[in-house]
Amino acid sequence: MSTATAAAATARPAAARAVLKAEARLFRREPGGLFWITVFPTLLLVVLGSIPSFRETNASLGGLRLIDAYVPVSVLLAMIMAGLQAMPPVVTGYRERGILRRMSATPVRPGALLGAQMGLHGAATLVSAALTLLVGRLAFDVPLPRQIFGYVLALALAVLVMLALGALVSALSRTQKIAGAVGSIVVFPMMFSAGVWLPVQAMPDTLARIVELLPLGAAAQALGEATVGDWPSWHQLGVLALWTAVLSAAAARWFRWE
């Protein structure tokens, strides 16, 4: 290994840490993004829980209440906000203003920037999930997940898959406007598959089987199963892992500095 190559390899970890530190500082200065990721899903849960019919048992949900089914939906909604609405405009804004072009002349690699953004938005999503579970329990007596390890595994995979999708949108979008348009187009099928308008448990069998092949459809089912005490289906976990791998590889492949 040449001296120059060794020096570059040594500089990259330090550069990645510097990027993460700088991005964390900028992330804290964006209260709008933090609100939509960490507060809005729980606020929506409170609004829905205030509707009397949402607190009544529902035979089509296997005896659950609608508010019980909407806790995992609210958890997934935070991921949608983070992956499709918050993160892509940040990265594409850097590209549009030439910041990425200047970074390309440094030891920073694309993975460092995308990794920092995914890590920060992922952390905000996990905070939102904890807040949603807590409010659901205290305000509406929604049971906490009984299979905690399965729930955490499904939650982690769901976060990763949505951030990988956001990274792909960031990689393919040349400007903030394009990122916003693409994110808005993708967000609706993601919200449907997450059960925002109709919980997956209440969907007809054929539609539910199709939805389970989508990232958030599988995530909704996995989180629901873990909540009632069952280990999430390996089929659902496999769907999440496969989508994460494919979307991450595509984002890394097509990422451009300018």
From TrEMBL:
Locate the ABC transmembrane type-2 domain: which residues? 32-258
Q: Subcellular localization, per the record? A: Cell membrane; Membrane
Q: Which UniProt keywords apply?
A: Antibiotic resistance, Cell membrane, Membrane, Transmembrane, Transmembrane helix, Transport
Q: Which InterPro entries does the protein's record reference? A: ABC-2_transporter, ABC2_TM, ABC2_TM_bact-type, ABC_2_transport
Q: Name one Pfam family in it.
A: ABC2_membrane
| Isomerase recorded as keyword | no
Q: Please give a single GO biological process term from the UniProt record.
A: response to antibiotic
The residues that cross the membrane are 34-54, 66-91, 111-136, 148-172, 178-198, 234-255
State the membrane topology.
Multi-pass membrane protein
Cellular component aspect of the GO annotation: ATP-binding cassette (ABC) transporter complex
Q: Name one GO molecular function term.
A: ABC-type transporter activity
Please state which protein family the record places this protein in: Belongs to the ABC-2 integral membrane protein family.
> What is the name attached to this protein's record?
Transport permease protein
Specify the species. Answer: Streptomyces piniterrae
